[in-house]
Design a protein that fits this description.
This protein has 3 helices and 6 strands, in the order H-E-H-E-E-H-E-E-E. It is α+β, with helices and mostly antiparallel strands and about 100 residues long. The longest helix has 13 residues.
Length: about 100
């Protein structure tokens, strides 16, 4: 199966989810524009911000952008952790699906 066919099937599957407003295959130029915009964000509320997902994304072959009203699957682990350069954690999110202790 050609990769374009696979991408089309993945997009169709994503778009069939009621939470998805739109799903698009991002070509290289669009992905680079998104990276430039996102890489300009270096701090949030005075805390240094490192977008690790953006860094990991550079090594992927295919990029899909999904606009949704919520997470497609409820995360069970923290998605955002605020730390300093020494690793001290100042805060993190608490996803609905995360086990409580």
């Amino acid at each position: 199966m050609r990769s374009d066919d696979t991408i089309d099937r993945v997009l169709a599957k994503l778009r069939s989810d009621a939470k998805v407003l739109g799903a698009f295959h991002m070509k290289q130029g669009t992905r680079l524009r998104v990276e430039v915009e996102e890489s300009g964000i270096s701090s949030v509320c005075g805390v240094e911000y490192e977008n690790r997902s953006l860094l990991d994304d550079r090594h992927k072959d295919i990029h899909i952008c999904v606009f949704s009203t919520s997470f497609l699957n409820d995360p069970t682990e923290c998605q955002v952790v605020l730390t300093d350069e020494t690793g001290i954690i100042y805060g993190h999110d608490v996803p609905r699906g995360m086990p409580r202790s």
